[in-house]
Recover the amino acids of this structure.
């Protein structure tokens, strides 16, 4: 039994070495720096995916200086879509996306097996990179050992690079720093989207992984400037669905070292960002999209529209900061 286990380990090491020799340069050279909106999925009144309105939004996003789009992230309501719908949305986005933009597709599922299968389907549909959220249903058992094993197997099997995704507000689970450090050495894992907002943690991750060429993306516009200050290379920001140019402007100010101007713009984005994320969530994001000329529309049940009181508060968050 020991000999068999040792042989299996040697085979896996050989496979990773071969993968590294064939693909490491391509994976490590994939520059994911910049701003990405995690795009919303428009639905009809009967809650079918509205591909026409999706296309309309994509045409408008093509005119903004995004590095790319994240498709089937948390704001895309991916847990409420069928596997077929998830893949079809990625295909439609790929058809419309300019060639110089990256398509980052969310492929996370609860089991490692399903994540591997979904990742391959997303790659076949045109994804340039995968965003893989932490499995969380059995969060009590999702320790570093389990998560390292999960991500290593997914990344070994993937034909395109992988970005880790830690979003504790939705999963109740922070991807542990020690797991990130180990996974940063994998030749097919190029970075992390961290939505937790703990700047000390983000700084530590950057410090511990920068020798690997590992890239960290802020998971929210609310702490985008702070993340840039400690070494993040960009952000996946829900608010960019609404104020895309302004979020890109903030990123450019940070990259250019114009911190005083960046700080003033960051101040004005904090309240609207909080409103469309942790305060009111996807229904608020979709409502704000309507105000700014995009198709947001209804959410898929059980998500409900905002109450009248919440709608008024959402408007105040934007108008009091000069956006409406």
């Amino acid at each position: 039994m020991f000999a068999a286990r040792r042989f299996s380990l040697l085979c896996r090491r050989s496979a990773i070495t071969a993968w590294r020799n064939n693909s490491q340069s391509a994976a490590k050279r994939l520059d994911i720096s910049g701003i990405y909106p995690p795009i919303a999925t428009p639905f009809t009144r009967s809650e079918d995916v509205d591909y026409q309105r999706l296309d309309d939004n994509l045409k408008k996003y093509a005119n903004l200086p995004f590095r790319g789009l994240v498709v089937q992230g948390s704001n895309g309501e991916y847990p409420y879509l069928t596997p077929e719908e998830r893949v079809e949305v990625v295909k439609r986005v790929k058809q419309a996306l300019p060639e110089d933009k990256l398509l980052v597709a969310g492929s996370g599922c609860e089991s490692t097996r399903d994540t591997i299968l979904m990742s391959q389907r997303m790659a076949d549909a045109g994804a340039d990179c995968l965003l893989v959220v932490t499995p969380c249903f059995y969060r009590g058992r999702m320790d570093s050992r389990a998560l390292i094993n999960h991500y290593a197997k997914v990344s070994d099997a993937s034909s395109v690079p992988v970005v880790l995704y830690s979003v504790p507000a939705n999963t109740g689970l922070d991807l542990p720093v020690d797991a990130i450090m180990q996974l940063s050495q994998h030749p097919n894992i190029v970075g992390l989207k961290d939505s937790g907002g703990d700047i000390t943690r983000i700084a530590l991750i950057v410090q511990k992984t920068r020798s690997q060429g590992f890239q960290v993306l802020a998971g929210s516009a609310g702490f985008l400037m702070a993340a840039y200050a400690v070494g993040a290379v960009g952000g996946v920001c829900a608010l960019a669905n609404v104020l895309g140019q302004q979020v890109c402007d903030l990123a450019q100010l940070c990259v250019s070292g114009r911190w005083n101007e960046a700080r003033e713009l960051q101040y004005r984005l904090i309240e609207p960002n909080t409103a469309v994320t942790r305060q009111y969530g996807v229904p608020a994001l979709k409502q704000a999209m309507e105000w700014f000329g995009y198709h947001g529309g209804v959410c898929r049940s059980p998500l409900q529209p905002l109450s009248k009181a919440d709608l008024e508060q959402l408007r105040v968050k934007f108008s009091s900061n000069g956006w409406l």
In short: The chain has a mean pLDDT of 93. The first helix runs from residue 2 to 29. The CA atoms of residues 9 and 15 lie 10 Å apart. The two ends are 68 Å apart (CA to CA).
